[in-house]
């Protein structure tokens, strides 16, 4: 079997191991805890919104701003996170994100009025931007090619688990007094933030980032820890060296210089297609309507005939549970079925579910609460979440974190996250207003149409990346051998290996 170095694998090596490295798995799990905190914040705000509106006496427009401001601030965080992670490293960027979350959670939990609550939400939003960019990138950079889909989807799984915990928190804390309940819901996220800030410092740095810094001996030691055999570690390490633009003297080019120029101003044809693919998948993840279902699920179920607060919160717990279960299924399918098949199946299912949800809600709106239409609406909402979670949800983060070349990965991923947050904010801040104009059923007809466009985009623009080393993926987009002459680069890699 020939790999990036151009040599056959040594006898006994296992460059594509059939079993997952436990240390790499542990690293990915710890890194993904930051995503649980973000998911919790998203889920808990869905229910806390009801109590905040009653307590602070705010109107629907203020609610929309409160819901969406987190994503606008996350835009700032995501655009900053790429450069930050290139400078201070992936590990310290995760720690910084957790500290920002901690501060935001404390301020929101205090929340004596709408203005202070907004400040806390903005601070947490910056943490969201950091978290969404760095967790998948870190997981992708420590994973082997054969298990990268599973490990890189863990952050999305953790977001779903966090959303579910947020819904459960809504249900139990909602039974407390009005002034205390929602503040405990929001402030609780400070505890895991504090734990993670210290815990992540015990984990190793990404070996790919260390190579870009010229810290080759450290990188090689970590690569041995996250590989199943020394031969596999050597194979993966050689691929990274070849991709890291090693100078003739064995030094590595300074990271971060000219990255924006290579990404946006003067990209190669391959990088341009990679950027379009990353931006497109992030755009369609939220343009197809998942935020409307997750964030405003109590409103949807209220329209569908569920009236009491207890039943509304229980129904949203069901949404969170559905999301978590189907993402668990997706994590095990990603490296077997592949990204592309799951993505197309998922998006096609979302077209069907959005359409049936729109039909159900429209009939309820025009003809009253017919039992079959109410049931159709509720089942369709759950079906929509299930199809999203088995494909588009996790694959967005997996795909965008693995397609960029090493030198462009962090800041390329940050562009994708920025687009993701813009669309998230657009949907969350406009949903109620659009609903009042074209009805809730009309909104979901619109989402169904967008999902049709998304399916065609994915079909034509997103090639399969399953099982390929990160250093090989650029070729799928027409980049050829992005490392240039294999033999020359192999000689340079050997020279560096000899030095360490």
TrEMBL record:
<feature type="transmembrane region" description="Helical">
    <location>
        <begin position="376"/>
        <end position="399"/>
    </location>
</feature>
<keyword id="KW-0769">Symport</keyword>
<feature type="transmembrane region" description="Helical">
    <location>
        <begin position="150"/>
        <end position="168"/>
    </location>
</feature>
<comment type="similarity">
    <text>Belongs to the major facilitator superfamily. Sugar transporter (TC 2.A.1.1) family.</text>
</comment>
<dbReference type="InterPro" id="IPR003663">
    <property type="entry name" value="Sugar/inositol_transpt"/>
</dbReference>
<feature type="transmembrane region" description="Helical">
    <location>
        <begin position="23"/>
        <end position="40"/>
    </location>
</feature>
<feature type="transmembrane region" description="Helical">
    <location>
        <begin position="65"/>
        <end position="82"/>
    </location>
</feature>
<feature type="transmembrane region" description="Helical">
    <location>
        <begin position="312"/>
        <end position="334"/>
    </location>
</feature>
<keyword id="KW-0762">Sugar transport</keyword>
<protein>
    <recommendedName>
        <fullName>Major facilitator superfamily (MFS) profile domain-containing protein</fullName>
    </recommendedName>
</protein>
<feature type="domain" description="Major facilitator superfamily (MFS) profile">
    <location>
        <begin position="27"/>
        <end position="466"/>
    </location>
</feature>
<dbReference type="Pfam" id="PF00083">
    <property type="entry name" value="Sugar_tr"/>
</dbReference>
<keyword id="KW-1133">Transmembrane helix</keyword>
<feature type="transmembrane region" description="Helical">
    <location>
        <begin position="346"/>
        <end position="364"/>
    </location>
</feature>
<feature type="transmembrane region" description="Helical">
    <location>
        <begin position="438"/>
        <end position="462"/>
    </location>
</feature>
<feature type="transmembrane region" description="Helical">
    <location>
        <begin position="118"/>
        <end position="138"/>
    </location>
</feature>
<dbReference type="InterPro" id="IPR005829">
    <property type="entry name" value="Sugar_transporter_CS"/>
</dbReference>
<keyword id="KW-0472">Membrane</keyword>
<dbReference type="InterPro" id="IPR036259">
    <property type="entry name" value="MFS_trans_sf"/>
</dbReference>
<dbReference type="InterPro" id="IPR044776">
    <property type="entry name" value="PLT1-6"/>
</dbReference>
<dbReference type="InterPro" id="IPR005828">
    <property type="entry name" value="MFS_sugar_transport-like"/>
</dbReference>
<feature type="transmembrane region" description="Helical">
    <location>
        <begin position="94"/>
        <end position="112"/>
    </location>
</feature>
<keyword id="KW-0812">Transmembrane</keyword>
<dbReference type="InterPro" id="IPR045262">
    <property type="entry name" value="STP/PLT_plant"/>
</dbReference>
<keyword id="KW-0813">Transport</keyword>
<dbReference type="InterPro" id="IPR020846">
    <property type="entry name" value="MFS_dom"/>
</dbReference>
<feature type="transmembrane region" description="Helical">
    <location>
        <begin position="180"/>
        <end position="201"/>
    </location>
</feature>
């Amino acid at each position: 079997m020939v790999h990036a170095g151009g040599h056959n694998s040594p006898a006994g090596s296992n460059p594509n191991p059939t079993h997952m490295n436990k240390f790499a798995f542990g690293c990915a799990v710890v890194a993904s805890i930051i995503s649980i905190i973000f998911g919790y914040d998203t889920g808990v705000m869905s229910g806390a919104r009801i109590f905040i509106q009653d307590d602070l006496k705010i109107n629907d427009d203020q609610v929309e701003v409160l819901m969406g401001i987190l994503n606008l601030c996350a835009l700032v965080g995501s655009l900053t996170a790429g450069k930050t992670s290139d400078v201070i490293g992936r590990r310290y960027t995760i720690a910084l994100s957790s500290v920002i979350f901690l501060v935001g959670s404390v301020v929101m939990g205090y929340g004596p009025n709408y203005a202070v609550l907004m400040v806390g939400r903005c601070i947490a939003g910056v943490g969201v931007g950091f978290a969404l960019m760095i967790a998948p990138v870190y997981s992708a950079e420590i994973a082997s090619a054969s298990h990268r889909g599973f490990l890189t989807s863990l952050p999305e799984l953790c977001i779903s688990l966090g959303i579910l915990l947020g819904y459960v928190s809504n249900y139990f804390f909602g039974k407390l007094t009005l002034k205390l309940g929602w503040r405990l819901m929001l402030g609780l996220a400070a505890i895991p933030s504090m734990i993670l800030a210290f815990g992540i410092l015990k984990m190793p740095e990404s070996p790919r980032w260390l190579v870009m810094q010229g810290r080759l001996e450290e990188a090689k030691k970590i690569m041995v820890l996250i590989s199943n055999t020394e031969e596999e570690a050597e194979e993966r390490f050689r691929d990274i060296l070849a991709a890291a633009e090693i100078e003739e003297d064995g030094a590595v080019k300074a990271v971060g210089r000219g990255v924006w120029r290579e990404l946006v101003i003067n990209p190669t044809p391959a990088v341009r297609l990679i950027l379009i693919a990353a931006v497109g998948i992030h755009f369609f993840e939220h343009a197809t309507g998942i935020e409307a279902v997750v964030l405003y699920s109590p409103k949807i179920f209220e329209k569908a005939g569920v009236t009491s607060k207890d039943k509304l919160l229980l129904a949203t717990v069901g949404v969170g549970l559905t999301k978590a279960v189907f993402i668990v299924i997706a994590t095990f399918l990603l490296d077997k079925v592949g990204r592309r098949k799951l993505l197309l199946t998922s998006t096609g299912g979302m077209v069907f579910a959005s359409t049936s949800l729109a039909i159900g809600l429209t009939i309820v709106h025009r003809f009253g609460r017919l039992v079959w239409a109410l049931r159709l609406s509720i089942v369709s909402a759950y079906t929509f979440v299930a199809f999203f979670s088995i494909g588009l949800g996790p694959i967005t983060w997996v795909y965008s974190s693995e397609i960029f070349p090493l030198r462009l990965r962090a800041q390329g991923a940050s562009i994708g996250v920025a687009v993701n947050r813009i669309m998230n904010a657009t949907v969350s801040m406009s949903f109620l207003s659009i609903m009042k104009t074209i009805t809730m059923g009309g909104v979901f007809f619109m989402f169904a149409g967008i999902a049709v466009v998304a399916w065609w985009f994915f079909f034509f623009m997103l090639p399969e990346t399953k099982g390929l080393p990160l250093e090989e993926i650029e070729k799928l987009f027409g980049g050829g051998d992005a490392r240039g002459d294999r033999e020359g680069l192999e000689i340079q890699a050997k020279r560096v290996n000899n030095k360490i």
